[in-house]
Amino acid sequence: MELIVSRLLKIALATLALSLPALGWAQGKIAVVNLEQAILQTDYAQKQLAAVRNGDDYKADKAEYDKLKDEFDKLVKDFQKDAAVMSPEQQVAARQKLASKQSDLEHVTGKLQKAEQAAGQVLLQEMSPKVQEVLRELIATEGIGLLLQRQSVIHADAGYSITAKVTDKLNQLPAE
Questions:
Q1: CB 41 within 8 A of CB 127
Q2: At residue 105, what are phi and psi to the nearest 5 degrees?
Q3: Which residues does UniProt assign to the signal peptide (predicted)?
Q4: Are 133 and 38 in contact (CB under 8 A)?
Q5: Which member of 28, 95, 123, 166 lies 3.0 to 4.6 Å from 38 by CB, making a disulfide possible if both were Cys?
Q6: What is the per-residue DSSP string for 115-165?
């Protein structure tokens, strides 16, 4: 009798253990998405960003950045080469010149970044309704019970990400 009860208990526990994963899947799977990345990787977004980068103001700022970067790199190289034979006053002057050039470089870099960020914000706002539509569709078809923003998650294996699927679906939508 004890042997039968022991076997029945083992069978019941095995059945319970095997059914637990099924109960978890019944509530839907978990996924993560990086909406900004999904939007910015679309064909449309790439065209819009290319248009910004081909604008006259952006090109002028980029040319200025390239020129300043070359000058800065040359100053650093010269300073490293000549520092040992420079007087303390010459070293101070060279460091001040480097700091000034670096400040100019950071200013131009900021202008370039602001132009790209502004275009990115416009894209995010413009495509938001389409993204919501695509997310609703993916949630339904993939059986997603919990969708998290990638930036809010400490760790998620790549298999949990639906970012590429969102980008693909956005690329398939008709252009307006």
A1: no
A2: -65, -45
A3: 1-26
A4: no
A5: 166
A6: HHHHHHHHHHHHHHHHHHHHHHHHHHHHTEEEEEEGGG-S---GGGB-HHH
Which tokens hold the place of 82?
């000549």
For the chain, which residues make up each domain, given as ranges? Answer: 27-172
CA–CA distance, 111 with 122 (Å, rounded to integer): 17
Backbone angles phi, psi at 30, to 5 degrees: -105, 140
Helix/strand/coil for 57: helix
Q: Are 147 and 33 in contact (CB under 8 A)?
A: yes
Residue entry with tokens 């300073």: 79
Summarised one tens digit per residue, pLDDT across range 80-100 is 998 889 899 998 999 999 999
The first and second tokens of residue 50, run together, are: 């290319």
- In 3D space, the residue among 66, 23, 48 whose CA is nearest the CA of residue 118 turns out to be 48
What pTM did the predictor assign? 0.67
Task: Decide: 119 and 49 in contact? Cβ < 8 Å.
Answer: yes
| Residue from 33, 8, 15, 12 nearest 137 by CA | 33
Q: Is 96 helix (H, G, I), strand (E, B) or coil?
A: helix
Cα dihedral 109, 112, 116, 121, rounded to 10, equals 80
